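Subject: complex prediction, re-run

Hi both,

The earlier run crashed halfway through, so I resubmitted it with identical inputs.
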Amino acid sequence: MTADREQQVLDRIEKARRRRPKLKEERITLAHGSGGKASATLVEAVFLEAFRNPLLEPLEDGAVLAAGGARLAFTTDSFVVSPLFFPGGDIGDLAVNGTVNDLAVSGARPLWLSAGFILEEGFPVADLERIVASMAAAARAAGVQVVTGDTKVVQRGKADGCYVNTAGVGVIERTGTLELAAARPGDAVIVSGPIGDHGVTVMLARGELDIESEVVTDTAPLAGLVERLLDATEGVRGLRDATRGGVATILNEVARAAGVAVVIEEDAVPVRTEVRGACELLGIDPLYVACEGRMVAVVDGSAAEAAVAALRSHPLGEGAAVIGRVKDDPPGLVLLRTSFGGTRIVDLLVGDPLPRIC
Amino acid sequence: MRFVDEFRDAEKAQALAAQIAGLCEPGRQYKLMEVCGGHTHTIYKHGLEDYLPETITLVHGPGCPVCVIPMGRVDDAIFIARQPDVIMTTFGDMMRVPGSHGSFFDAKAEGADIRMVYSPLDSLKIARQHPDKRVVFMAIGFETTAPSSAMTVLRAAAEGIENFSIFCNHVTIIPAIKAILDSPDLRLDGFIGPGHVSTVIGCRPYEFIAGDYGKPLVCAGFEPLDLLQSIYMLMLQLAQGRSQVENQYTRVVAWDGNPKALRAINEVMELRPYFEWRGLGFISHSALRVRERYAGFDAERLFLVPGVRVADPKACQCGEVLKGVLKPWECKVFGTACTPETPIGTCMVSPEGACAAYYNFGRFTRERVKEATRS
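This time it finished cleanly. Structure:
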């Protein structure tokens, strides 16, 4: 009896959750930039509502466009990370790699980038040169060219030093599409390496926590790694680079887009000891911490071994591992089997514990 | 990872679970309350309930600091934050707690200078850096965090930092437990004692619970094995017909607590005659305020706080949930009008709140989750 009543309540909640999101707030709060539920609501209730078209609707990292027989991928991303420089990287390589990775996980070969700068009056030219130099180096490493750009300067106090926007175009040469919605029961879920490095690096670089560590950002261009994977197996259903909101956010996207359950083994998720330690101290879950050079791959279960082998053969995929499986029930849900031997739900994050991570 | 993984060993957990199951009397239902929100979090984070027989129910108690803050105090805090030249500093989980007209998050979006800190000392640092501003620390929590607020006031006094104050909302755990014990609809068999609070107050203050009310209490640590062992110790007491205060968290909790921390609290703070708790109403001698001699560090005196009293929303049944009378999902607005994104009651705000924990981690019946995770 009680179980029935509980199920009724749970069903009612699921129904409420499927309703079209409404933006209730009158003003933007930091939660709207978190990559979690509030961000999703903002995108769907404001942007998608106004711009609705079939190319935008899938809300993938990049749009796939057909032009003169060729298939192109197109994407854009803005960077507001604080601090601008942190161990292993800076806002410059982040801005290039972020857009390159969005193209790569759409199955495209990244080719051309734009770069837009919003600079605060008084910002040191030497810092700008340092940022631009690392953008140039990252572009060379990824095999892309920055072919157009824009600069704006705002009054002191109206921006925080330097913001960067990049947009990118790539060409899709392979047939077939990569989409998370194609995930089906029996598929394997793979991450390409240890998670959470970037988020923890930036958090510690802010110096607010008085914790020291050797962790450096994982920012890297993933196009080569994607290439290696797609060459090795045809069993790849979809890819996504795990940035803001971390791997947990991607897994929820898989579960929702494909209407499947994703079941993860906590023990199988690669996390560096330093990152785990920092997360334990701060009471945050590494599954939600940002990466900038890691991706999640959903592949046919029978191709899992080949996929992991291919990823591990590339320097950026040495730590690749199968972290879980796709199942059919309960649809739309991510479940975690904890190291302790229990189970729990891994939901979308509500607010961001760490704003301005990228 | 050392000092963590030892306390999360699945094999030891299975052995303990078998012992716990062996102590259950057939046909008897057990309700154990974990008083502390940190325990609630551990239970859900590690999926600890999977180890318990269905006849043992864990009831999530009132020990989540932000969950027991009444709306009026939030409104008062936002009033202070909006005063000219004020920087309000707060722990992160206070940011989304709703007042009657929005939360700290909303006030911040509207222009108030509200910053998250990890310690009141960070707040003092901000005061040093901004001598032209009035820096206020939103002091919340039980005896766990009260000593750090008190120590920060003492340091500010020693350094002569005059632009720092605390808005004191510290509460004490014993009156809250007593209120629950005196509640006529009480149906609890025992208590998992709050480990962090006990590091400060020790185990002795709980003795009346075992003595006068006949309910066993075990002070517990925060790793999942700590909790399982505490549940085992409680079940053993129940099986043997004992009711005593026992200490599972011996590696941290001393029987007499931490005298130095207690002295710091006592130096800076005194008991209020009464204080309003979210869901539990007014409880006498259940909260702390800054003593007269530290009036210069007391935001309540410095800012002519309006002292708003706001009735809890009618639909909200946080009180029943906090007392363990209702399970989160039995509340009328759970998961529909009240969700982690748009919380009505405070139990839904903090990840340690019983409702938020249930909503995020426990929404599906155990059988369905078990079936899905079977390999």
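The mean pLDDT of chain A is 91.

- K.
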